[in-house]
Amino acid sequence: MKLRRDITGIILAGGKSQRMGVDKALLTLDGEALLVRIARTMQSVFEQVYIISGNNRYRFLHLPMFDDFFPGCGPLAGIHSGLLHSKTTASFIVACDTPFVSRDLLEYIIEFESQAEVKVPATKGLLHPLCGLYFRRCLPAIEQSLKGRKLRVQDFLARVRTAVIPIGPQLPFYREDLFLNVNEQREYQLARVRVPLRSQS
What we know:
The chain is an alpha/beta fold.
């Protein structure tokens, strides 16, 4: 499969893991760190993949790393930094703590027909803004939100043209755990149970 050169893969790994108590990006599933799993998935789609983080412990991946221009402002600042450093008109944003995001999901979102500035998936009406395609032209709106300390990603999405893409059992790649977010020990233990189930599919 030919890697995409027109879109940059951006992995957000700047969280402080306060609820987990340890660096969640380096927690392992089936012997592989969450960050490594996501990087492997992104590198199966995109020729260029960046990590947005100031954590030097991630340099073992040998991927370009960039810190936030608006430190302490959460995921929106990470999206901003990713788009700012990207050399392509669009970038695919994925959080490092969503280990079950798949190549098929990424491709489906990319190919979804829309002229919007952002394309994000939704399951059962719940948006997943940290797994979506963001176009560089929405940078001014992000900067305005950050400067105004309006830091919720969903609030920003309400200010730009956003395509919401329904993801459900009608799609061949759908799984209940596609957007499982590993923020706490309970979610981590659930992810550890789900890994063998995925390997059988």
